[in-house]
Structures are given as structure tokens and as C-alpha cells.
Amino acid sequence: MVTHEASFFALPCATGSAGNRSVVPIRDYAIIGNCHGVGLVSRYGSVDWCTLTRFDGAPVCWRLLDATLGGYFEIRPTKSAHATRRYLQDTNVLQTTFSTDQGGIDLTDFMPIRAAASGVCLEAATLQTEARLVRIVEVTRGEVELQIQFEPGASGLFPAVDGSGASNCEAVLSSDCGLSGTWVSGTLRLGAGDRCCFVLSTQPVDPCSVADAGQLLDATISYWQKWVGRSRYDGPYHAAVHRSALLLKLLTYEPTGAIVAAPTTSLPEEIGGTRNWDYRFCWLRDSRLVLSALATLGYHEDASRFCDFQRARCSSAPPELQILTGIDGSAALTEKTLDHVSGYCGSRPVRIGNAASAQRQADIYGEVLEWLAVLRELTGRWDKVQLELVRRIANQVAGHWQEPDQGLWEMRCEPRHHIHSKLMSWVALDRALGLAGENSCWRHERDAILAAILVRGTHPRGHHLVHAFGFDVTDASLLLAPTLGIPLDRGLVSRTVAAVRAELACGDYVRRYRADDGLPGTEGAFLMCSFWLVDALLFSGEADQARLLFERLLDTGNDVGLYAEEIDPDTGDFLGNFPQGYTHLALINSAVNLSLYARGGNDALRGTLAQRLSRAMAGRPSATGCPVGDV
Fold first, then answer.
1. Could you tell me the sign of the dihedral formed by the alpha carbons of 411, 311, 264, 574, in that order?
2. For 170-204, what is each residue's pLDDT tens digit?
3. Which backbone phi and psi does 535 adopt, to 5 degrees?
4. Fewest beta carbons within 10 Å, which of 203, 426, 498, 549?
5. What CA–CA distance (Å, rounded) separates 83 from 187?
6. What are the φ and ψ backbone dihedral angles of 573, each rounded to 5 degrees?
7. Whole-prediction pTM value?
8. How far apart are the first and last CA of the chain?
9. 326 Cβ partners below 8 Å, 6+ apart?
């Protein structure tokens, strides 16, 4: 089971330069946010990453990536303290409890969010958010001396990628205890029952308004709890599923419905290495997983808005779809390096933008048509615009599936004939036949793809699928093969899963691949791939193994139930951007698959994603007062 509280020993607050402080492990952060901006808060009471207005805006605090230049907002006891932290029940409100020999405090961190309209259907209400990060200190016993330190990041050194051209975000700290300004350093001695409020925002806040922060807290708690209350998940893993759903909602950019892959950039896949990428964008590949996860849990409005965002991008795009865009739909994501930023633990370069936006990744077409098949299954609605999109994509796949690509893993080397891309090309044409009707060209090319996979994409001795044509190594993306509804021999699938485990598994963790990808250094194991292994085992008839692995993976999240992109199999340290939406999506979908199997056995898992999703939702009433609408 996931734990949501942990104890640790907090060292005294460092005085003077932020550079005097040790680097905080990625695992030791938690997230707060309001569907516009986010803050990463360390176990030790420091906000080390914060964007107030947009996920991709210029950060106010970025000590996460540079201890000297990055800036931070820290509240912590001046004496050594024992601490626990947790999210308040069914919310994204973080509470850290510090206990010293002299007294104890609760530090409550959140970014305000509330529904703008009252009514039965919370999801249909427009959100009201404020570009603020609020911290409330309450002394629960004795007397505590606190260090309060706000140092904004160096001006002009960490630009936004939101199209504004802004190179810094002006911020000011306001409080009801006399510690306010654009740079604050001081101590505060409080006794039992005392309470102080701090508001970090783009404009000064009146002290009386600061004192009303408790009302914002109540509204924020109410919003998150009502949102979770709409969940229709009825399986045994409520805590993990709802924490993952809360994260996905937090990572949703409310103005457009886009969901960022992660709220950070350049957290390294190898400490000291160069594999540092910007994930503050929306990937088209996420569409089917997001739709499946949100719709299964009952969040129809969120799923609908995400689908509208993705559908607009696809309908207006040329035949070659762009795999990721900005959260406002912008296509220009030019990758740049910030050579003056030291990076997390010296991991350079720090990047903004993402060059993968210009890559050809052929699997994307299957992802989009799988998503459209799910959409039609859920809504029963179909129009000429969607039909034309299906035809355009199917024709693109039929004419170009024999070309190499960079693949799911966005390799920065010469294009290859990735087997996963071929599998998804088969999916694209198969779903097109179901959505748009018979087409002899599509059917012929679909069958040709499968024949090519079986002839050129299998190991000559091991008789299992391989990474790409001409390779004899495997690839973790092959774990998806059993879930795609492709008519593959059961023995081939079982041998492929076994080969991936033998070659890429490190205990419960799975690396993506061992093939050369054109980059120096190494990386950790991808946590998403571990959940893919859960699904592969389940779909291959190893249900008990799948369930046990899933439950062990629940214990690998951090103390508040969050997951990074990767993990070091030897140390358990988190690597890569954090928290990672992909990992939490995979967790939700594995939990749903396990529940589906528990109710219907192997028969419940057969067929396409759309068919499984229909079974998963069968017999569940719609959420009271909320029409299903377009999703």
C-alpha cells in the first residue's frame, strides 16, 4: 500500500547563501498547484521550483536547478527538527509537521483554486485561480523559532517557453507578520496557538487579505475533495489511483485542457549527465491513455476538454502530425540550452524547449486512431471532421509505414524501423477500417505490416520481437504488444515478455532499451515500463504475478505517493522530471486492468482498448448531475 506520511530528521536551516545547502533528492519533493502554476516543496520546507502563472512560464524559484542563482522560499525551524508530511485527505494541499524539543508547527502549502460557479456539476464550472502560493504556519505546541527566507531567482536568467519572451517573473512576498518584500530574510518566534500567513504572488497583497488565507485554504480543500468525490473507481487501490488522478488534474492547464508531461525541465536521467529534457509540454501520444484513465474514473468533462485540445491540433495539422506542442497549442518549441545554469547536481545542459517536436515518430498515428476509436465507443457520436481525420491519417500510414522513424523513445540518432512503431501502424490501419469502413488499400497494407514484423522483427533464435529491424536486442515498448489487439501468436507474445524481462528488468524495474541511442551516458529504469510489465503479465495469463508486482510498485512512490520518470534500480533514487504524468497514467490504467480482470477474467481483457473501456464502464451509473457530454 502507498504510504502518505513519513518521518525524517530535518537539519537546521542554513544561513547565508543558498549555495551552502546540500542538494535535495528528487524523491524528497512534493507538488502543489492550481492548474496554472506549480510549486515543488522539499521535505525541509523549501519551495525550490515555482511558476506562478503558467507551467511553462519563467520560474520565480529555480534553486532545484541552480543552488546559487535559482532562488527559493524557505520556512523551517532554526533548530533540528523531526518532521512528517502528508497531503490533506483527497487534496493537493500539502502539510508538513515539524517537531523540535521546544515545540511543534504545522506548515500548510497550497496554490488557491476554487469553482467559479456553484451547482451540482463541479466539472462544468469554470475554475477561479489566483497567481499565488500560500504558506500558513500554525504553532501546535510550545514555542518555535522559524527562519523565513525568500530569495527570487536571478533576474533574466531563466526565460519562459510560453511565447511571451519573458525572461523573469517578478514576485513579492506578503505576510501578516511584518516579513514582506521582494527579498526577505528573518527569524520569527511563535508560541502555541500563533498563526502566520505568507503569500508569494506577482503583486503585493494587503496584510488583511493575507490574514484571510484561511478562507482560500477552505475553498481549495473543498474544490479538490469535491473533484475526487466524483471518481467512480471502485477497485482496491483507492489511495494510489486517486493520488494519481489528483496529480493529472493538477498538471492540466485550465485555459486549454492540455496536460503537461511533467511540471519541470532538465531533472537528469543520470546524475551529472546530459540527458536532461524539458517536459513542460503536451504530447499527442498521451491522448489514448489520458482519455482512458479520466473516462474510466468518471471525469468526463476533463477528458472532453483534453480531447477537444488534441482534436483541434490534429484537424488543423498537415499529414505529418507534430508529436508535442505547448500547453496553448503553440508549435514552436525550439530547444535551447541555458549554459549559465549549473543544473541539478551539476547535470548539464539545462534545456528549455524540446527538439523532439520536429521528429518523425510513426507510432503517433496509431495512438490517435486508437483514441478516436475510444472516443466513438464512449460517446456514440461521429462527424465528418473526425471521419476525414481518420482517412487522412490512414492514407498517411498506408503510404509511409515502410519508412524509419525516431520511435516512441525519441532517439537522437539515425532513424530506425522500430517494431513498436510498426505495431502502432498496424493499429492505425485496423482502427481506421473499423471507423471509416472497408478500404482494400488499408487492409492490404495492414496485413503487410504484420507480415513484415513477423519476418524482419523477430529474433532468429529466440523467436521473440526485437527493438527494430536488423537488431537482436529487445525494447520495453514491446511490453505493450499484448494489449493492442493485434493477432500475434500467444507463444510469440510470451517469449517477448520473457525476453524483455531477461534483458531489461532489474528486479521490479525495467529499463527502456540497451540499444545505442546516439547520446552519451546512461539512464535509470523507467517506472512507466514497470507498470507496462504489470499489464503484459496480466494479458499473458500471469494474473497473480501482475497483481503482486503492481502492489510492490505502489511502495516505490515517495512518502506522499508521487513518482518520477525514472528510478535508479540500485539506490532507489528518483531520476528525471518530477512528478511524471506518464508514470501516474500507467499506474491508473494498470489498476483499472486489474479490476477488469477481477470482475471478468481473461475474457474481460480481450480486444481493443475501446472494447475494454466499454466493459470497464458497463453497469456504472453516470456521476449524479453531470451529463457525459462529448466523452
1. negative
2. 899 999 999 999 999 999 999 999 999 999 999 88
3. -65, -40
4. 203
5. 19
6. -70, 140
7. 0.94
8. 32
9. 56, 161, 162, 163, 258, 281, 282, 332, 333
Express each pLDDT in 329-377 by its tens digit: 999 999 999 999 999 999 999 999 999 999 999 999 999 999 999 989 8
Segment 203-226 shows an average pLDDT of 91
15-22, long-range: CB < 8 A, 24+ apart: 15/147, 17/68, 18/63, 18/67, 18/68, 18/70, 18/71, 18/72, 18/151, 19/67, 19/68, 21/67
Is residue 319 reached through a cis peptide bond, with omega within 30 degrees of 0 on the bond before it? Answer: no
Buried b (16+ CB within 10 A) or exposed e, 419-446: bbbbbbbbbbbbbbbebbeebeebeebb
Under DSSP, the state recorded for 273 is S
List the one residue out of 504, 468, 464 whose CA is nearest residue 363.
468
Strand pairing category for 132-151 and 103-110: antiparallel
C-beta atoms surrounding 77 within 10 Å: 25
Mean pLDDT within 265-286:
96
All three cell numbers of 594, joined, read 486489474
Q: What percentage of the chain carries pLDDT values higher than 90?
A: 81
Residue pair 135/198 in contact (Cβ under 8 Å)? The answer is yes
Conformational region of residue 374, where left means phi above 0, alpha means psi within -120 to 50, and beta covers everything else: alpha
DSSP state of 193: T
